[in-house]
Structure prediction request, 221 residues.
Amino acid sequence: MVEIIDSIYRTLEAFFASLGYFGMGLGMFIESCCIPLPSEVILPIAGNLVAKFPQEYTMLWANVAVGVGSILGSLLAYYIGYFGGRPLVLKIINKFGKYVFITMEHFEKADNSFKKYGSATVFVGRLLPIIRTFISLPAGIAKMNVWKFILFSVLGMVPWNFMLIYLGFVFGEKYETVVKPWMHQFSYIVVAVCVLIFGFIVYKFVKYYKRMKKESKQVQE
Prediction:
């Protein structure tokens, strides 16, 4: 398990390193336009690159790159909601959501937050899992002022981006001595969670099968 996690980490690190600042921005563009590529993965890797290659990368430009990518991705999602409205957004999610792990529940969670708290959700939502990825859609649907949307987005993105990039920078130099050994403990947690999820799926399937069998028997009678 540790080898798998380390392999994934190294692959992503090599990918971003090959594209430089553009790769950092591209990763956040993808995350911000509602494709769940977690910023919790992208940003620490960006910080790690700054730590490992100080001659090529700086904290300032790493934050600028991910900030630009975040805003452009958010604007794409915003304008999909703005011009297409709820019908188009729902149609896209229903048709393509399953291919990029987007569910209606993700959108509804962000939409309900926006309806409840209004424009402030764009700022606060940038600091919250799931909501931060999808909040641009309801903001566009509600036709929130675009400049206000950009301002609130930047105010919410900057501290989040900086914090995770900085964490990657701090632990980047200690990856081999601190982070990687810790993965041995983490791997057991991952295995345990996977076993629980698999057991839950089996339980639900058996329960569903028994219910369908019972209903079929009642119909026949």
About this structure: Residues 2-173 form one domain. The chain has a mean pLDDT of 76. The radius of gyration is 21 Å.
